[in-house]
Structures are given as structure tokens and as C-alpha cells.
Amino acid sequence: MRQSALQEIFARQKGLKAEVDKDTLVISGTYYIYDGEIPYGSYEVWIGIQSAYPYVEPVVFETGNKIPKKLERHVFPKSKRCCLGVWEEWLLKEEDHSVANFMNTILQSYFVSQNYFDLYGEWPFGERAHDETAFVESFAEILNVPPIKETVLSYVCILCGDWPKGHSNCPCRSGKRLRDCHHEELMELHKRISSKIAHQMKKRLLQSG
To answer: What does the DSSP 8-state code read for residue 81?
Structure first.
């Protein structure tokens, strides 16, 4: 990562430090949560960002034991890794995939939510499940299709390849040819979702089965 990118991160997060371990950028220390420009809480963190980022999700641990290490608090009990949400959803909703934007958006939301839960006993932005339902629901929203795994997977499989051919069966499972059904919608999705991200979505769905 370029030095300018690190400076952008540490200008806001002065309690963090960075070092490189093989092909991983390790960021650790005190991470602050903000209300506008004012910090009002903090968490001790260890963050591993591989060289293949953003196509490989960062690994985040809360190391100060402020968050219980259990699934209902969005922490995987075995690995103790923080569950930030569906990574591909963030990739598709955010145009800026920089580490600085990751730190200021999805990571900030995670710890803001944890702080809010400690205060009020509920999640401020809602929450997703931690099984395959989370991926099906998330991808269904992105694709604007019913949250049915087989349907979502059919769409994702088409997006993994080249431009969809009109004579192919429509992935909505209507039995119609694509040209007579959802061809325009698929073409728009193809413009927005790269085959690389589509392959990641497919992998998520198949692994969760």
C-alpha cells in the first residue's frame, strides 16, 4: 500500500500502527468510532489485509475483549474473527474499495453497531443471519430477484460467464428463453457486476450449501 494511503487512514485513526508481514498488511492498535468528526468510543483491533485485497476480505479481530466472542454478537466463536457482513455486498455498493474507505464505512459501522448494542440491546442498522440465508438474501437484493437459493445461483452462474446469449434459458426459472424474459435486466447486471465478483458470489453460495 502506498504511504499516502496509510497517512489518510492514520490522520483519522491516530491510535493505529501498521507493519507488513509477508504479503499481509497488519494494522493494529486502538480504533476509534466517530459521531461526525468527534470520537466517542474505541476498540482494540488487529486487522490483516492481504495483497489480493479487495477481492480477499480483510480479517478483523477485536482484541480488547469488549465484545463477547459469540455468533449473536457477530463474532465467529471458533476463530474469534469479527463478522462484518457480506463482503461482496460492500464491494458492489461502494465504488471506492480503498483500505481507507473500508476503515471508514463497513468497519466503522460494525463497531458503531457493537457500541449501540451495548447501550440499547438492539442493532441500529438491522442484522443478517450467519448461515447461507445471509448470502441468499444479500445477493437476492443485489440482483433484484426472489430470495430463493436456486434462483440466485442461476443468475450468478450466468454473470460468471460472457454476455448472456438470448437463446439461453432465463435464470428466473420461468422456462422462457432469456431474450423473451429478463434479458435487459441481465445485461444491466453484467455491466455492474464483474465476472470476478460473480465467481466469488457463486463460491459463497456453493460453500454454504
So the answer is: B
Hey, which bits of the chain come out as E strands? 16-21, 24-35, 38-50, 59-62
- Reference 31, options 59, 12, 57; nearest CA is 12
Q: Say how many residues make up the chain.
A: 209
Residues 56, 62 contacting (CB under 8 angstroms): no
The DSSP letter of residue 45 is: E
Q: Is residue 66 part of a domain?
A: yes
Note whether 78 and 99 are same-domain residues: yes
Which residues does 208 contact at the CB level (< 8 Å), separation at least 6?
131, 132, 135
Residue 126 lies in a domain: no
Check whether residue 167 and residue 139 sit in a common domain.
Answer: yes
**pTM score, whole prediction:** 0.87
State the DSSP H helix or E strand holding residue 24, giving kind and residue range, or none if neither: strand 24-35
CA 88 to centroid of chain Cα atoms: 5
What are the mean pLDDT values of the chain's consecutive 10-residue runs (209 residues total)? 71 92 94 94 97 94 97 94 94 93 96 97 85 89 94 94 81 91 92 93 84
- In angstroms, the CA 162 to CA 158 distance is 8
Last residue of a domain, one of 94, 120, 146: 120
